[in-house]
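## Example record

The block below lists the input lines for one assembly entry, exactly as stored, with component labels intact.
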Amino acid sequence: MSEAALVQATIGDSEFDRDTAVTRRAPGVYDIDLSAGWTIINAVNGGYLLAVLGRALADTLPHGDPFTISAHYLTASEPGPAVVRTDLVRTGRTLSTGQASLLQYDDQGREVERIRVLASYGDLDELPDDVRTSAKPPAIPPLDQCFGPADAPAPVPGSSAITDRLMLKLDPSTLGWALGSPSGKGEMRAWFGLADGRDADPFSLLLAVDALPPTAFELGLSGWVPTVELTVHIRCRPAPGPLRISITTRNLAGGFLEEDAEVWDSADRLVAQSRQLARVRL
Amino acid sequence: MSEAALVQATIGDSEFDRDTAVTRRAPGVYDIDLSAGWTIINAVNGGYLLAVLGRALADTLPHGDPFTISAHYLTASEPGPAVVRTDLVRTGRTLSTGQASLLQYDDQGREVERIRVLASYGDLDELPDDVRTSAKPPAIPPLDQCFGPADAPAPVPGSSAITDRLMLKLDPSTLGWALGSPSGKGEMRAWFGLADGRDADPFSLLLAVDALPPTAFELGLSGWVPTVELTVHIRCRPAPGPLRISITTRNLAGGFLEEDAEVWDSADRLVAQSRQLARVRL
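Predicted structure tokens for the full assembly:
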């Protein structure tokens, strides 16, 4: 864990908040310096990038909470300067919709679009309390019986900077891949938090859904599983405390797979659901 | 079933193809007359509208098959004239990405945006044959033991024009709602085809994922369940013959629910997966 963990960080004053902060240069134009601190293997984590886009949209739209956000990943982002452009698509009473693009510049100064997003925002605090969720929280052993990167030689090749910023403890029964014997089941379960102790909010949930090792590892595949598209539904403002996350894959075929994530908070609420389409090398 | 069913229609020459055909007026600008034939209750079916947008994007992009398409529904579409505007976002070797908007005009001739879409297209015929799907097809009784609108007094209030164009046979075990005793389970299963016998293709799959009665009916809720966002993954070109579709809801809470659809073809391939976020009146 990073030194920041020695001091409990709070929502609005944490590594994650600083590294996802966008600066409005003009209406609908935001500057951001993409941090190298959220990279894994050779990639900037797609959930971190989605949180950056999500924060720019929250500044642009009349509503502040992402209810559903759909991102299509176009080219690989790199740490360093980037620009977010946003557009207000529609303003409604309870929901507003916006669009955003993350842009970087190549050696010749040409604009390269990294990610394009459509999102509908609302106010989570305005939702009725009615809960009829039939899904059950994932069965994960207690935190102290789960394992993180610090407990083993880094199972992931290349950069693992992001692991210093996460409290990620994997269910041993989904850790076979790290020990050379993947289960063959397309499932990964973990306890999740931010290393500096910052509690979860809707923006860190956008990071959480893409923060576990890919299910492809437990399916016996290795290497990068680049996201083509990722859609996240934020259904409830998460309660303080660690989150439980399960990701599952049921359709590995034709060089692609889906990854469904469920994020549960300490109050046993299913606070986020996501699905992504990703490429695999078969 | 409509009279068209007396003659087996083919892909490219069917009611569905005619009603989703867009006419290019200029590069990236398409005219379409939204058919009243695909309405249910008071709404134009969201899957039919997605197919219209999908066909315009197929004309705009260098690749012809939707791999993943994300639609945010802004305002309720009406039968009649509409315009689709498309933009090419990025061209890649195996995938290209585009954006599209469906527009109609109000009494004062003002443009009103109905739906905005982001999509990544490819070529399904270029995908490797490798299939490691762990999901299983839904257990649905044989077609002749399932029931459609023709077998009962229309269970859905208001318009049911779309039912004339579909071969939709529901699993009796998910029909409790139609008999006044909903199961309480958020699941709906059915055999699906087009009434005129046209086989499925990637565009009719965009219709299929949104064509069953809402799971909310089996959860004891009634009335319209408007879609906020719908994302569809097309994973394989469907084999000829009827499709089996299951839709499930696991998180009805706070006035919203998710609806996950799986579409299986006659060759037992999971050809499409979708998830939508919809509003419910609790």
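The two ends of chain A are 34 Å apart (CA to CA). Chain A touches chain B through 51 residues (CB under 8 Å).
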